[in-house]
Amino acid sequence: xxxxxxxxxxxxxxxxxxxxxxxxxxxxxxxxxxxxxxxxxxxxxxxxxxxxxxxxxxxxxxxxxxxxxxxxxxxxxxxxxxxxxxxxxxxxxxxxxxxxxxxxxxxxxxxxxxxxxxxxxxxxxxxxxxxxxxxxxxxxxxxxxxxxxxxxxxxxxxxxxxxxxxxxxxxxxxxxxxxxxxxxxxxxxxxxxxxxxxxxxxxxxxxxxxxxxxxxxxxxxxxxxxxxxxxxxxxxxxxxxxxxxxxxxxxxxxxxxxxx
Length: 260
Prior knowledge:
CATH topology: Rossmann fold
Structural class: alpha/beta
Radius of gyration: 19 Å
Helix content: 25-40%
CATH architecture: 3-Layer(aba) Sandwich
Order of helices and strands: EEEHEEHEHHHHEHEHEEHHEE
Number of strands: 12
Oligomer: single chain
Number of helices: 10
Strand order of the largest sheet: 6-7-8-3-9-10
CATH class: Alpha Beta
Distance between the termini: 42 Å
Largest sheet: 6 strands, mixed
Strand content: 25-35%
């Protein structure tokens, strides 16, 4: 598979401290990858570095074969979308207007929106189950609804790479199921999807590949069942993890217990 985004021995420093150390990874078209790890492992920092929003102390990120540092921001935004947890803030923007911002990289300044823009926005609203809320102001929405609006904005960009930092934040179980079904649809369309997922059970059910980040380094990589069964994963989270096969399910169910 051709890598759409690649990190090569990346280090990231924040506040005078090395947060990401020698991380190398690739993400190919049609992949669904879960990035997991304990709190303060550096997951959000890594995702932002992959999106070009944080400077690298060393190493390189390449997007579709080009050094990310050499790409203009609008070119990056045409290929890559980053969805982050929505902050609670008053906004006069409607949901539809928020999603429409995802089309900006495709049209540039001072140009009218096209039929293609309208179609992309309508499709994103439908995928995120936001059509009934399209004209509602963001300030009137719940935190979960604002999070879905952020996802729809990313979908409206029509990216080849979709990076998500804790996309299930604030979502109830029904909306979580819908979220990951949408990500499956996007992946099936050839988009490379990487998501930071705190719920290990959800990550194992959704992802085709899992990356374990611990203390800023990749401590494990592979199929979710392999990563979750590893000693590195037990050390990272400080728990015993047991996987249980369930007839009719194509993934294991996991239990988590304190270490003995």
